[in-house]
Every structure is written in structure tokens, then in C-alpha cells.
Amino acid sequence: MCQTKNKTKKLPKCPTKETDNGKFVDLDNTLDDVAKALVKADLVIILDESDYKKWDEFVEAWADNEKWPLVVRSSTLSNSKDRGKRETEVDRRKIIFKDNTPAHQMFVNAYKKKDVPTNYEDALKGSLVSSKKWYVAHVEPVIQGKQTKITERKLEDIKGIHTRLLKPSNIILIPLEYKGLGEVPGFLDKIKTQYEASIAESKKRKLEDRASIPDCLNRAKIIINPNI
Question: CA angle 211-61-50, nearest 5°?
Fold first, then answer.
């Protein structure tokens, strides 16, 4: 009896927008609808320029102050041997490693319209938005280019990482339950577009109580409906 050899099943290469853009049209349209649904349900928080401007300027001044350490996420440590470190130096500038907590604190400070402090230590105080079931999503990726060791990066590059991590204008809050959407390329830009459109349609936007970040669970529940 003749036996045939089993052919090895190969994993197909995933299409990309560059190679097969047509396959992504419906998906992109659906993401537009999801972004619109989130904004319509009041399930995103984006700061106005009047809220974030002075805190953005504080973060930029912090980056330029050689006496203050730059802050980067510990996840930027690509070398496993470096993980667990709390600080290092690049060109005699101190670099401290943190989780995403400082980004939470900067956003909350701006949201509550707090005055900027005279030192960086006071800026690194405050609550986490995750306690209110929100997720900090960065519009412009904090890390850009090839993932390399912090100590192998130029100081100006590290300053960029610091500012993109901490500037409130680069942060959008989305529901913690949908945090994965924050990692979808271009999705946060879609949220900003939908948000700006909703502001244009309604000039009298309701001003919220700035005493504290509202609990996400207390906001309107959302059912993702592609027909919205």
C-alpha cells in the first residue's frame, strides 16, 4: 500500500495594511464606531488645553532641569539583567525607573486644576486613576524607535520618553475593562477625532466637579454597537 507523507501545515503570514489594505476597511470603520460609542457614552476623559497647559510646561521644564531626575518606565529596560534597578545615569543625568504611576499622578493633578509645585517630589504624589476603573492610554507612544537599553540611548531621546510619559496632554482615560483598545494603532486618534466632533456639536459642554476623578462604573454603561 502506498503511503503519502503528511505535509507540514505552515502558519500563514498575516496581511498588513501595506499588503492588503482592503481587508482592513471594515475593521477601521468598526473602530470608528467604537470610538464614537465610547465618546457618546461619556466613557473617555480628555483634558482641555486650559487644564493641561501649565502641567505640560512643568513636565518640559522638569526635563530641562539637570538637577531633577528624568522618569522612565521600568518596562523600558529591555535587558533582563537591568530589571529591578531603581535608577541609573546617562551623561551624568540621573534616571529613575517607575511604573505608570507618575503618569496617573500628572493627569490627576491637571484634572483637579492643581497648581504646579516647585519641586518634582510633590508632583509625584496623588491617586491612581485605576482605583476609579480608568486606564491611562498614551496617544503618542512613550517609546519610539528600536527597543534598546536606556543607558544606550542619547539623553535627548530619554527626555522625550520622560515628557511623553508624563505630559497630561498625551493621555486619554478609557475604561479599564477596555484597556486593550488603547494599544490598537490609531485608535486613540479616532477617539480624539470623535471627541472634538462632539464638542463642536455641543458648545455648552457640561462642566464636571473637579473634586475628584469620577468612578468609571458610575458613568453610562456601554454596548458596542457597530450600527451607531
Answer: 40
Q: Distance of CA 193 to CAs 4, 36, 148, 189, 198, Å?
A: 57, 9, 32, 6, 9
Cα 185–Cα 190–Cα 193 angle in degrees, nearest 5: 150
For residue 176, give the DSSP letter: G
pLDDT tens for 212-228 read: 777 886 665 544 444 44
Lowest mean pLDDT among 13-17, 74-78, 118-122, 220-224: 220-224
Give, in order, the Cα–Cα distances in Å from 187 to each of 2, 84, 181: 55, 32, 7
| Confidence bin at 188 (pLDDT 50/70/90) | very high
CA distance 196 to 201: 9
Q: Locate the DSSP E strands across the chain.
A: 70-73, 87-90, 93-98, 134-138, 171-175
The pairing of beta strand 171-175 with beta strand 134-138:
antiparallel
CA distance 39 to 30: 14
Assess contact for 228 and 33: CB atoms under 8 A.
yes
Tally DSSP H helices, then E strands, for the chain. Answer: 7, 5
Q: Which three cell numbers stand for residue 145?
A: 524607535
Nearest alpha carbon to residue 123 among 68, 173, 51: 68
Q: Is the pLDDT of residue 204 over 60?
A: no
pLDDT of residue 17: 80
Task: Look up residue 226 and give its three cell numbers.
Answer: 457597530
Whole-model pTM above 0.85? no
